[in-house]
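Final report, closing paragraph on structural work. Over the funding period we assembled a curated collection of sequence-structure pairs, and we close with a single example.
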Amino acid sequence: MARAGLTAQRVTVAGAELADEVGLDQVTMSQVARRLGVRDASLYTHVRSLEDLRGRIALLAADEKTIRIAEATSGRAGKDALVAFADAWREYAHQHPGRYAATQTRIRIDPDLAATAAGPRRAVELTYGMLRGYGLTEPDLTDAVRLLRSTFHGFVALEAAGGFAHERSRQQSWVRALDALHTLLEHWPPSREGESA
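Its predicted structure, as stored:
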């Protein structure tokens, strides 16, 4: 019988908290069970497997990150929106490294859960909406989304790994990178002839 008060959401949050502390790859069902004060078997009433738990953590994190970005970018456009978007992304990655990792890792997610999750869908809408403010259309929109994700994720991943050893502050480099992205987005190169989506 499942322990009273134990739900899939509680298990997911416990797993997410643990992921932030020890790293997503280090999370085990036994650790989550100990954190909740239950036997391992009790968890399987609420989540099917460790992979299922990781998928739920990814969806939780996508929701949380998207809400932050939406709040940060509300009422903003152009460079203001870009900077607010990027800063919210980076801040979430710093504050929740394990959850953030779940959003950047290929994890098999239950299709029924994915279908009802608003976070990933809203993230796409926010990103494309911000970039349309620069006048971009397909296929340039998709290319620009990939550029932003590569830049934001690359920067925060290198920060987390201690990969920036130069004496110049990381914050100064971050600000200049966003200046450069804004300039590039305003002067996006035209698509090549014959190129299609």
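The chain is about 70% helix and 0% strand. The CA atoms of residues 1 and 151 lie 48 Å apart. We thank the funder for supporting this effort.
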